[in-house]
Structures are given as structure tokens and as C-alpha cells.
Amino acid sequence: VALAAAAAIAAGGELARALVDLGVWLVFALGYAAFWFAVCLGVNSRGRSSDRNGVVLVGVWVALVVVVPALAALTVTTVFPPPSRVELTTVLREASEAADRSAAEAREKYAFDHPELASQEIDPDEFYRTVAATEAEVTRAVGPALAEFDAQAARQQRLVDTLQYLSPAMLVHQALLAASGTDARRYADFRAQVTEFHARWRAHFVDRLERRARLTAADYTSAPRFVHREPPAVARARRLVGPLLALYGAAAVIVWLAWRRLCRQPVT
Q1: For residue 44, what pLDDT is reported?
Q2: What are the per-10-residue average pLDDT scores of the chain (268 residues)?
Q3: Of the candidates 165, 192, 188, the residue with the CA atom closest to the CA atom of residue 178
């Protein structure tokens, strides 16, 4: 604990949040240790030989740390398989080609309607407007496929939130991911914020491009700037309450059962 606290302080950043995350780690680490001590107490309270108890404990550990998480991961990918990335790549390529063809046809029509401009150089503004229109067309075509990826990832996460209660290792793993800020929910939230910012960024410049307005110093100054908004601390804490109660609750139940068993054994 002392080393972890020293590392959090040395890393800099917001000290209060670092200490809170360290507290979350400590509470779950102690709960994980308490669970396995409770399992050891429960197995040894049966009064069997040491070698048999050792085999049983190894089997319980393998089942809860290796087998159950592997089966849970297989269940998640089977029930909610991710969309085909090959299909997404195909949609992206087809959309790009269709947009390029549409832009080429528009340029040919413009040249046909204005033959007097055929010998002149291409207007840079017109070229950039064509590029912006092409990118917008590709974005509209790929949008549904990307939305399906996000929706399927959300379904997978909801199933993981349910299956994690089958294994203390999964409970602690998901909790530590949330505490460290590397869980799927935070990533999805960050990606949504980036997508929203990208839309505002494009609108800021594309709108001026379509109005054939030259950019000024004020336009650059007023350009949108990305500021990441952290998820509310209350929401993060609410997601950790269930796993924490389950971890300590399981340890308490096992200790209670072992205690009752020990109390019934005769004293020799």
C-alpha cells in the first residue's frame, strides 16, 4: 500500500483523484484476499487431509480464475458476436468509390456547363468543396456500420456486467479497469465526445467553405477546442457498489458456513 501510494504521488496529476483510485484498488484487493482466505477456511473446516484440501483448493482456483472467465468471454462473443470488420472495410471502400464517382460526375457537368473555363486552372475553392462533400458522403455511408459496432459493444458490456458475478477474478478485474480509467465504458464515452467534437470542427470550417468565405484570424481563434469531460464520480462509484458487496458478501457467507461447521465438530 505504501509503494502504491508513493507511486500515485510521484506520478503527479490530480492528487485527490489518485488517492481515491488508490482507495478503490485497496478495498478490492483486500476483498479479493478475504475471499480466498475464506475459501481456504471453508475447505479446511471439512476436516479432510491436507493433500486433499490442497487439490480441492487448486481446483476451485482454476475454476474461478481460468475456466469461468474463459467461458464467460466465449459466451459474450457467441451471444453478441461483433459485426464483420471485413464488411465494414467493404462498405468504406464502396462508399469512397461512390463518392469519388459522384464528385467526378459533378466536375464533368460543371465543365460541360462552363466550356469557357476548360482551359483555365481548377479553382482551389471548388476542389476543396468537392473534397468536403466526398468526405461527408463517406461519413453518411459508414455511419450505420459504425453505429452497429457501438451498439453491439454496449450489449456485450451489459452481458459482462452480469456474468462478472460468477467469478471474483472477473469482479476485481472489471473494478480495477474502472478505477484506472481503462474500462470499455470510459472508452466509449471518450469516443462519443471525440465524435461530437469532430462534427463541430467540421461544421466550423465546412460552413465557411460552402459560403465561399475566406478564413480570418478570428475564425482560427474561435475554432472549437476539444476538452475531455470525465464521467461523473457518482456514476463510477455506483457501478462499483454491486461488485464490492458481492465480493465481501461471498467471503462473509463462506466464513459463516465454515464457522458453523467448526462449531459442530467434536473437540478431541
Answers
A1: 92
A2: 79 73 88 96 90 94 95 92 77 74 66 57 67 75 80 89 93 88 87 90 83 82 88 80 93 94 78
A3: 188
Contacts of residue 248, defined as CB under 8 A and 6 or more positions apart, other chains included, come to 31, 34
pLDDT, tens digit, for every residue of 70-109? Answer: 999 999 989 988 777 777 777 777 777 777 777 666 666 6
pLDDT per position as a tens digit, 161-174: 999 999 999 999 99
pLDDT tens digits, one per residue of 190-207 = 988 998 998 898 888 888
Output 177-184 pairs: Cβ under 8 A, ≥24 positions apart: 178/236, 178/239, 178/240, 179/21, 179/24, 179/25, 179/28, 179/240, 180/21, 184/153, 184/157, 184/160
Measured between its terminal Cα atoms, the distance across the chain in Å is 42
- Residue 119 in grid coordinates: 482551359
Which one, of 230, 247, 254, lies nearest residue 24 by Cα? 247
Measured in degrees and rounded to the nearest 5, phi and psi for residue 172 equal: -70, -40
Q: What is the reported pLDDT for 2? A: 83
